[in-house]
Amino acid sequence: MRPPSRIVVSAPSHVHAGNIDLHGGLGRLYGTAGFALEEPRLVVEASRAEGGVEAEGPRSSEAERYARRALEAWGCDEGVRLRISSEIPAHVGLGSTTALALSSGYAALALCGVRGVSVERLAEVLGRGVPSALGVYSFKLGGFLVDGGFRRGSRRVPPLVFRAHVPRDVAVVVALPEKPVPRIMEIKRREAEVLASMPPMPEDLAARAARLLLVAALPAAAEGDWAEAARALHEFNRLLGEYWAEAQGSVYCCRESEELIDAAVRAGAWGALQSSWGPTVYALAPARRERQVLDALSRELERLGGGRAWSTRVDNEGARATVEV
Q1: How far is Cα of residue 157 from the mean position of the Cα atoms in its chain?
Q2: What fold does the segment set 170-312 form as a domain?
Q3: Element of type H or E holding 210
Q4: Which of 24, 34, 135, 273 is least surrounded, with the fewest CB atoms within 10 Å of its CB?
């Protein structure tokens, strides 16, 4: 089969719920739970070029680097032109970097005619998937996802241990406040240093977090009881904030996130959570309450100094590729 002349990759964003184990006494760390989202999406268009790799659009230099690394790893010398036509906001808890890396690498390899490369292997080559593989499995599969954590000293992508399809009657209402973004950008800049300085999570706290996820949230999700799953995830996320408070200053990253979470629950959401370092927060709500939760978060953002709120659904498919031969 002839390699394509053009490929468009549309990849979902994703949001974190938290990590199963930050103690590490059993040999693995993290173990991330979260959701792939239909919006916002990253769209990367790739076509053949005369030689080398070039890109245009937001974060074009990063896209070039990831595409070049993939081509070099599989021995390809195809010229590739990338265009990022739609982006995921960067470094605010929406999974933009892994989506950019995998989309750019996948598109470049497809143009070169390389087939059969697993998403996990591509992620390893591009330096993504550790400590969290949530972005890898959001790209590959979508849905509600839990990875099993990485082994100390390993760069292998953690295994997927749970996935559930989330029906469309579950609304995801997202809020991104403006004021905390500069502070979160600074934390992200120092993330490796911050993570290295954190002490192991107390074993009793890790055990409580694991029970909330494994004995409450996952069985409810498996049975399709998303109200119960969301309530358990809300508590799970808040509990984990007790550990991260040392680095972020409070249970949540900032006053804005905490007040948005409280507003969402008051408006009828089953539960609301901070994604990663924030400041993005998201609420899981029944579709019949979607509008009132969205309105409540929009009003709260206006009071807190601005930002954006939107409603979406869980992406249950993962990334999609459109190919022109």
Answers
A1: 15
A2: Alpha-Beta Plaits (3.30.70)
A3: helix 203-211
A4: 24
